[in-house]
């Protein structure tokens, strides 16, 4: 693992240290994932302490019930040391995310992808994702105009990761709202 500090933007939230497990300083991390078994054999994680993400190395870990990971950190050998990290958030670098295929994607991985509409062709480059509304939206820029395109399986027809392109079939009238003056 790199010794330079990681920024939160380079990481994804894995879970939270919720409690101590043993007097030897083991802790339980509640994993925020649908596939906890993916993270059973990690070598290290980043723990958010203050304003920094600090690397901690794992001596051993195993799943405890469904989404709890019981972890023995090399740096922590007693309850007092474990107390200092209880409640802390745990992160992993983005490159540790298991790759998604088909029409599933992580929001961070499609920034910079082109959006190609079945009728209008190139409708811009994805500059961000707005997921604060009930419906997540691609925020695309086309020659200085901003388009908001809903993210859902009906609209997305194909994702070409090699060409960094997402093919969409937008509802009638949506694109013309933005592009036709």
Describe this structure as you would to a colleague.
- This protein is mainly β and 181 residues long.
- Helix content is 6%, strand content 44%.
- It has two helices and twelve strands; from the N terminus they run βββββαβββββββα.
- The strands form two sheets. Strands 1-2-5-4-3-6 form a six-stranded antiparallel β-barrel.
- Residues 108-174 form the Ribosome maturation factor RimM PRC barrel domain.
Summarize it.
This protein is mainly beta. Helices cover about 5% and strands about 45% of the residues. The chain contains two helices and twelve strands, in the order E-E-E-E-E-H-E-E-E-E-E-E-E-H.
Per DSSP, the total helix count is 2
Question: How many β-strand stretches?
Answer: 12
Q: Which percent range describes the beta-strand content?
A: 35-45%
Identify the overall geometry.
elongated
Give the strand order of the largest sheet, numbering strands 1, 2, ... along the chain.
Answer: 1-2-5-4-3-6
Helical percent range?
under 10%
What is the rounded Rg?
A: 21 Å
**What pattern of helices and strands is seen along the backbone?**
EEEEEHEEEEEEEH
| Biggest sheet details | 6 strands, antiparallel, barrel
End-to-end separation? 51 Å
Topology:
Blueprint: E1 11-20, E2 27-31, E3 44-49, E4 52-64, E5 68-73, H1 79-83, E6 89-93, E7 114-117, E8 121-130, E9 137-142, E10 145-150, E11 156-160, E12 165-168, H2 174-179
Parallel strand pairs: 7-12
Antiparallel strand pairs: 1-2, 1-6, 2-5, 3-4, 3-6, 4-5, 7-8, 8-9, 9-10, 11-12
């Amino acid at each position: 693992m790199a010794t330079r500090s990681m920024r939160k933007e380079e990481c994804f939230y894995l879970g939270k240290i919720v409690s101590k497990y043993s007097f030897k300083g083991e802790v339980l991390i509640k994993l925020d994932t649908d596939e906890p078994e993916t993270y059973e054999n990690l070598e290290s994680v980043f723990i958010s302490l203050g304003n920094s993400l600090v690397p901690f190395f794992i001596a051993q870990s195993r799943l405890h019930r469904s989404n709890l990971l019981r972890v023995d950190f090399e740096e922590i050998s007693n309850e007092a040391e474990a107390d200092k990290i209880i409640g802390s958030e745990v992160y992993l670098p983005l490159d540790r995310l298991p790759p998604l295929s088909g029409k599933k994607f992580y929001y961070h991985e499609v920034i910079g992808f082109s959006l190609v509409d079945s009728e209008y062709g190139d409708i811009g480059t994805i500059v961000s994702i707005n997921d604060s509304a009930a419906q997540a939206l691609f925020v695309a820029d086309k020659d200085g105009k901003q388009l908001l395109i809903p993210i859902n399986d009906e609209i997305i027809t194909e994702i070409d990761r090699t060409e960094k392109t997402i093919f969409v079939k937008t509802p009638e009238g949506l694109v013309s709202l933005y592009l036709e003056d």
